[in-house]
């Protein structure tokens, strides 16, 4: 009798697991189907800035991580973790970055909170550890939960960190709002530049070693990304087609 009860309980448990798995699969597929049809209002988008071909190609290069738009559609609440261990200048840098980004990502708001933030900032850490417990050999890191966890291309949570000997927190925060490294070289330096050769040490000091530097081109790309006429989930391929562009236009 005892063994029969356990067998019945095991069958019920397996049935529940199967039902939950099936439900999750249905929700996941439904989310993908809905967001695969996402498009954009080309006319209204172009009215905002009458963007040049070069600007749109730059946008296509850095604003489509994993070949899709990912951005916030709710307030970004910045929480600096372990503030008691940081000097005032490190906290003020975050305040300045928030002030720089605030007008660029409108109508989304970004502000600092003491707790329960959805963008957590870890400054000057000794090492950066992945979720699997392995240390990463990098100067900074940005974590955004994958689609399988959120069922949405919208960014709703992120964590950023920079190592103690490097000041790259602005770069990581730009990842957290939806930018990726550039794949192509440009005649100007960006926080998200994949490759760039400085003309002089003075230029390197002004741009690379300035924790608050951001190029005008990068500012424009962020404004374009947070246009209400661009939606999370939009595919890069569809964007290029709608704008009558392709990667051969470079």
Question: Helix and strand string, N-terminal first?
Answer: HHHEHEEEEEHEHHHH
CATH class of the domain at 71-226: Alpha Beta
CATH homologous group name of the domain at 71-226: Collagenase (Catalytic Domain)
% residues in beta strands: 5-15%
SS-derived structural category? alpha/beta
Question: Quick one: how many beta strands?
Answer: 7
CATH architecture of the domain at 71-226: 3-Layer(aba) Sandwich
**Physical arrangement of strands within the biggest beta sheet:** 2-1-3-7-6
The share of residues in helices is 40-55%
Task: Write the CATH fold name of the domain at 71-226.
Answer: Collagenase (Catalytic Domain)
Shape: globular
Mean pLDDT, to the nearest integer, reads: 84
**Span of the ends, CA to CA:** 75 Å
Describe what you observe in this structure.
This protein is α/β, with parallel strands linked by helices and 250 residues long. It has a domain at 71-226: Collagenase (Catalytic Domain) (3-Layer(aba) Sandwich). Helix content is 41%, strand content 12%. It is built from 9 helices and 7 strands. The chain has helices spanning 2-36, 42-49, 53-62, 88-101, 147-150, 169-176, 201-207, 216-225, 236-242, and strands at residues 76-80, 110-112, 119-125, 128-129, 135-136, 140-143, 158-163. The chain has a 5-stranded mixed sheet with strand order 2-1-3-7-6, covered by helices on one side. The protein has a two-stranded antiparallel ribbon with strand order 4-5. α3 crosses α8 (216-225). The chain starts with a helix and ends in an 8-residue tail after the last helix.
């Amino acid at each position: 009798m005892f063994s029969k009860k356990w067998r019945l309980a095991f069958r019920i448990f397996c049935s529940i697991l199967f039902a939950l798995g099936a439900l999750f699969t249905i929700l996941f597929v439904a989310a993908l189907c809905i967001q695969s049809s996402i498009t954009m209002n080309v006319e209204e988008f172009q009215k905002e800035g009458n963007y040049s071909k070069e600007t749109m190609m730059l946008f296509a290069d850095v604003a489509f991580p994993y070949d899709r738009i990912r951005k916030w559609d709710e307030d970004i609440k910045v929480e600096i973790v372990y503030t008691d261990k940081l000097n005032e200048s490190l906290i003020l840098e975050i305040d300045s970055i928030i002030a720089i980004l605030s007008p660029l990502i409108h109508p989304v708001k970004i502000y600092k909170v003491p707790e329960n933030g959805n963008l957590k900032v870890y400054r000057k850490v000794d090492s950066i550890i992945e979720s699997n417990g392995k240390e990463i050999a990098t100067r900074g890191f940005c974590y955004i939960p994958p689609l399988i966890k959120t069922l949405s291309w919208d960014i709703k949570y992120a964590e950023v960190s920079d190592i103690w000997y490097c000041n790259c927190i602005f770069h990581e925060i730009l990842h957290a709002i939806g930018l990726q490294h550039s794949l192509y070289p440009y005649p100007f330096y960006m926080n998200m530049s994949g490759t760039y050769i400085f003309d002089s040490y003075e230029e390197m000091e002004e741009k690379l070693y300035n924790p608050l530097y951001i190029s005008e081109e990068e500012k424009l790309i962020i404004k374009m990304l947070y246009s209400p006429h661009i939606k999370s989930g939009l595919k890069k391929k569809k964007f290029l087609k709608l704008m009558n562009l392709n990667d051969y236009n470079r």
